[in-house]
Amino acid sequence: MTKLLLRALAGETLPTPPIWMMRQAGRYLPEYRATRAKAGDFLSLCYNPELATEVTLQPIRRYGFDAAILFADILLLPQALGADLWFVTGEGPRLSTITGPDGMRGMKGKDDIHDHLAPVYETVRTLSQELPDETTLIGFAGAPWTVATYMIAGRGTPDQGPAHALREGDPETFGALIDLLTTSTIEYLSMQIEAGAEVVKLFDSWAGSLKGDAFQRFALEPAKRIITELKARHPGIPVIAFPREAGDGYVGFAKATGADCLAVDNSVSAPWAAEHLQPDSCVQGNLASRHMVTGGQDLIDETRAIVEAFRGGPHIFNLGHGITPDADPENVALMIETVRSA
User: What is the model's pTM?
Assistant: First the structure.
């Protein structure tokens, strides 16, 4: 029988939706923390195929999710392109910045990334052999706009202000960066698919800060280019798009880009998404991550309400964003039990 997640992505309405969780391999799990300590630091974990495979498998062993997502980071691609990347404990990633044409001249080409990313492809190959037969393997990358915001600011920012400033003040440099990231993301995801990824997901975590024509040009159009080329190279490959906090921009996004599934955050309601998005594609989401911390009857009630709202079409149950480090592993088990008994 075809895997549940692939059936949902093909447009099938299932009696029980498949389940996985963004950041399901992560700091809320004691076994992850132990493996991370063994690796020494976050980037060493990402680039160690044996340990990256182990942390990807941990939540599958513990919970029996219907999908595993490759353990990596969206900023490995800019590092492969030549950016300096490091992580500051308790604060997150730092990168060398691109603030004008000089920064772009230091970047490698789209075909020069694969040696650097070879450990990631090895992790995908290993996972494709070690995952249970019923578990789907998801590869992923950051969308060009979101990755660009980090490359321009050198870190995460609350409003993506530096990226917006470059977009408006130096459109030539900004456009060149978006184009490089778009073509490089195609190569990166294509290699993940060749290594064994059965689905790929495009994370545009900061899409919501793009408004109007800018959303069309720098969120929707790059996603369309990436998805169109991936499907040309790999016919039948399902793609999940996640333009987070797009609001009304979610409407028509799957149809316009060719995405098979639209992941939605919890700033939109499940009934709204079922009405406006599910007629076009499978929908993934969208339980608020805070429920993994607080648990209790609110978790049960909201989980049931989401399952019920999406019952009339193809649905993958997930959070509206990644699970947080302070989540209680028992609440994850409660969520899964609730979905599968709803």
Answer: 0.98
Question: For this structure, is 290 an active site residue?
Answer: no
Is 27 one of the annotated active-site residues of the chain?
Answer: yes
Q: Is 112 a catalytic residue?
A: no
Q: Spell out the residues 6+ positions from residue 328 whose beta carbon is closer than 8 angstroms to its own.
A: 28, 292, 293, 295
Please give the C-alpha separations between residue 311 and each of 12, 283, 301, in angstroms, as whole numbers: 11, 11, 15
Question: Of these residues, 36, 167, 244, 290, which one is catalytic?
Answer: 36
Residues in the chain: 342
Query: Which tens digits make up the pLDDT trace of 46-90?
Result: 999 999 999 999 999 999 999 999 999 999 999 999 999 999 888
Cis peptide preceding 48, ω within 30 of 0: no
Contact between residue 257 and residue 227 where contact means Cβ atoms under 8 Å apart: yes
Nearest CA-CA partner of 303 in 257, 258, 336: 336
> pLDDT for 237-273, tens place per residue?
999 999 999 999 999 999 999 999 999 999 999 999 9
Residue 258 dihedral angles phi and psi, to the nearest 5°? 90, 10
Catalytic residue among 7, 33, 62, 73: 73
**Structure tokens belonging to residue 147:** 């990755």
Tally of CB atoms within 10 A around 326: 11
